[in-house]
Every structure is written in structure tokens, then in C-alpha cells.
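Protocol step 4 of 5: obtain the predicted structure for the target chain.
Materials: sequence only (see below). No template structures provided, no constraints applied. The aim of this step is simply to have a reference model before the mutagenesis design in step 5. Sequence pasted as it appears in the construct record:
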Amino acid sequence: MILSHDFQISIEEYVQRGKENEFPVLDQCPNCHCTGGGNVYRHGFYWRNGITEDATLRIPICRLKCLLCEMSFSILPDFLLPYFQYTLHTILKRIREVLENKKGNGPRQLCTFHVRRFLKGVPWIHSYFVDEEKRKNTMEKGKKEPLNYLKRIMHIGESSFLRRSWNHLSTYFMAN
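Step 4 output (C-alpha cells):
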């Protein structure tokens, strides 16, 4: 299992610190949720590449293991993506260049792969931001947003809304 962690340092500083980085100490297993001191312990390191525009860096990844369920975990710095050698910043920069019709800096086939993978994930990204906005609006606006939705429902007609919205997300708008 891969656990992303924000070390709050740059990739260069992470590489410089190496195995001496401040790795998180887990008091609960993310898999079996057992608690207790020492159940999740450091299980060594493995090395992987972090490729930026300028360099290929060797990055130590800390491994943890649970004594109870014997599941292994990798603490992946949040500037890396699972199963990608290029850093998150490098990938997103290249995707942006291609989408803005600029020549992507890097191998053409790799840029195409990253753009295709990104475009395939756009519905997921959209869903994430819609959910985030909903959480934010619910906390900030109280009754204002639901009232706006109710006005929109009345505008298109209650029955029309019910028919059109039925089975959205496998249910209907008043389902429990």
C-alpha cells in the first residue's frame, strides 16, 4: 500500500537528507486499523528515480510493516506519483505546455502518454472539485445554496426535474 506524505521540503532537500528525513510514525495500521505502540514499524528502504527537467535523482522511499496483518506500506513523498518516475511538477508542467499548444519539453511519446492519462482522469478530477466546492459551500452558505437549488428545480418544473435526475448516481435526489 502506498501512503502519500507531505514532508514540507523540496525534492532537493529530501534527496540531501536521504534516509535521515523525518518519516511519519504511524500509531495505527492503515490496513487492519490495529493500534498500539510498535505495531507498525520501519521495514527498510527502497530507492527509486525522481526525474525533473534538470536531473535524475535517486530518492529513498521508507517502508513500514504491520506486525499484526503483515501488510507493507511505502511512504511516498507527495512530489512523486505512484508508478511514475517523473516528478509531479514535471508531469503537470509538460501537460500544461501541450494543452496550451506549446511544444512539450521532453520526449514526444512520453508527453502524449501523460496528456492522454490526464485527459482520461478529467471526469474524476471534476468530481473531486465538485465535491470540494459542495463541502465548502455547505459550511459557508448555510441555507443560501439549497435555496438556490430549490429555485432551479422550480424553474424547470418539479416533475421534469424528478424525471431528468432519476438514477443520477444510482438514486434520486430525496433518497436516504
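Step 4 remarks: The mean pLDDT is 81. Strands lie at 2-5, 40-51, 56-66, 72-77.
Proceed to step 5.
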